[in-house]
């Protein structure tokens, strides 16, 4: 599964990103609307520091590629994904893909 979104569009349509996350992870769109930082609310606790560090790189304008994290589905199961964020001009492009269930996602603390 690949998902892409331009950063400029994401700023205007945050609801669409939340909708995609909700559908993929089994949450209702309504429950996602009230989450100020839905990505961090969905990353397993063991991966939060790495996710925050990666977001810091993105905020500094640095590209990130194939960052692996596990997201928490509504039923409590974990789904490993890899995502990338690439800056082209003034637009960010985000790519995410679901990894095979047996993929090892290293835990970084």
Explain what this protein looks like in three dimensions.
The chain is an alpha+beta fold and about 110 residues long. About 35% of the residues lie in helices and about 30% in strands. The protein contains five helices and four strands; from the N terminus they run βαααααβββ. It has a four-stranded antiparallel β-sheet. It is globular, with a radius of gyration of 13 Å. Mean pLDDT is about 75; it is low at about 1-15.
Tags for this entry?
alpha+beta; disordered N terminus; globular; 109 residues; 4-stranded antiparallel sheet; 4 strands
How many strands appear in the DSSP assignment? Answer: 4
Q: Give the overall form.
A: globular
Specify the structural class.
alpha+beta
Largest sheet entry: 4 strands, antiparallel
How much strand content do the residues show?
25-35%
The overall average pLDDT, rounded, is 75
C-alpha-based Rg, rounded: 13 Å
Strand order of the largest sheet: 1-4-3-2
Order of helices and strands: EHHHHHEEE
Low-confidence stretches: 1-14
| Cα distance spanning the termini | 27 Å
Total helices: the number is 5
Helix content: 25-40%
């Amino acid at each position: 599964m690949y998902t892409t979104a331009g950063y400029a569009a994401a700023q205007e349509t945050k609801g669409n990103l939340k909708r995609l996350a909700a559908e993929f992870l089994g949450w209702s769109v309504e429950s996602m609307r009230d989450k100020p930082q839905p990505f961090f609310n969905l990353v397993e606790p063991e991966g939060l520091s790495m996710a925050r560090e990666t977001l810091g790189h993105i905020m500094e304008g640095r590209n990130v590629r194939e960052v692996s994290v596990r997201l928490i589905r509504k039923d409590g199961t974990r789904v490993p994904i890899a995502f990338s964020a690439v800056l082209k001009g003034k637009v960010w492009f985000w790519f995410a893909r679901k990894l095979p269930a047996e993929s090892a996602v290293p835990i970084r603390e």
